[in-house]
């Protein structure tokens, strides 16, 4: 009896140790999770590339991309899809949290994933391509772009075994569906309210990657959340059309101030840095070069107003050119690729106010009495150093002693006004006490 109890206790202890060992073994698996929000642009593309690369090197079970995007650039989307298709480890696209969406480029990324999942209260669709910036918007060209996008998403759907017909409908007709419809139509593989429930749902699934088949062990996996680096965050910020526009203006003004005032250094340094950042941002955005040229024309017109007396016509032309250029710079039907009207108004009014102020200062400087040289002495008040004899004598002006001619009534110590100059001789007249001279400063 005692032997049976002892065997039973040993068996129970062995089972307990096996369970603990299994849990410890299962917990050694890791899952990389990255949050992708906002526009699909080069910054997000670079971030996704680095996450997949790092996860593969670390031997992670899979990468989960928590996606919430209205869409983005076709070029960036294609690079992301390429990274997913060639990934050595499974990539899971999880449209979450509730209220999120995978629009436009997000549809292609979801279709490319090894596993596609959605949280309740999310949607996917509206993947019809649109023309960007100064792109050809003719009917023939748009048909070519649409057909190319359809062929691309059909190939992704066939590769992952997902609904081909709906994929084409999403591109041609901008169709959009909820998570329940997506699961029913086999657009996605699973609906999961939380990340933990997703890990439980995909546990044990066998995924085919470029390196072969892999069975996922995601239950009790250690989650490693990957945050964007400071560099990626900076690139993401300057890729915003409003920030890129402001950097462009700051860069132009900084360089101009340095050219007009050589040696200040600070405006030149700030302008150069801003221009470099602006050019990077313009490289990542759908730029209309006609708008860019109009902005440069506006700056030229403002500068000409200072040099050429056009009575404000050049300033008006510059304001019109700046507004039109700002509107056209990122001329896109997609809201997140357009500059805010508030930013355009603030930049235009600020620029116009500055150049009007500068023009006023320039006109005032042109009308001001000369401060140096021969012309600068005219109207100055000096002191007679001696009694004038035969209309001649010496006068002290600004600490200098000049030979002068004037009225014989001028006595030593009298205040005199310089009226003109002949060579190195000045002509003076007594300062009238009843009409004091006010020199214009």
What does this structure look like?
The radius of gyration is 38 Å and the shape is elongated. The strands form 4 sheets. Strands 8-5-3-2-1-11 form a 6-stranded parallel beta sheet, sandwiched between helices. Strands 12-13-14-16-15 form a 5-stranded mixed β-barrel. The chain has 441 residues and is of the alpha/beta class. Mean pLDDT is 83; it is low at 435-441. Helices cover 51% and strands 18% of the residues. Strand 9 and strand 10 (212-215) form a beta hairpin. It starts with a helix and ends in an 11-residue tail after the last strand. The protein has 3 domains: 2-229, 2-enoyl-CoA Hydratase, Chain A, domain 1, CATH 3.90.226; 233-367; 374-430, Beta Barrel (OB fold (Dihydrolipoamide Acetyltransferase, E2P)).
- The averaged pLDDT comes out at 83
| Rg on CA atoms, Å | 38 Å
**How helical, in percent, are the residues?**
40-55%
Quickly count the domains: 3
Class per helix and strand makeup:
alpha/beta
**Low-confidence segments:** 435-441
CATH homologous superfamily placement of the largest domain: 2-enoyl-CoA Hydratase, Chain A, domain 1
User: Got a strand count?
Assistant: 16
By CATH reckoning, the class of the largest domain would read Alpha Beta
Determine the number of helices (DSSP H or I, runs of at least 4 residues): 15
| Percentage of residues in strands | 15-25%
Distance between the termini: 119 Å
Largest sheet: 6 strands, parallel
Physical arrangement of strands within the biggest beta sheet = 8-5-3-2-1-11
What is the name of the CATH architecture of the largest domain? Alpha-Beta Complex
- The name of the CATH topology of the largest domain is 2-enoyl-CoA Hydratase, Chain A, domain 1
Give the overall shape, derived from the CA principal axes.
elongated
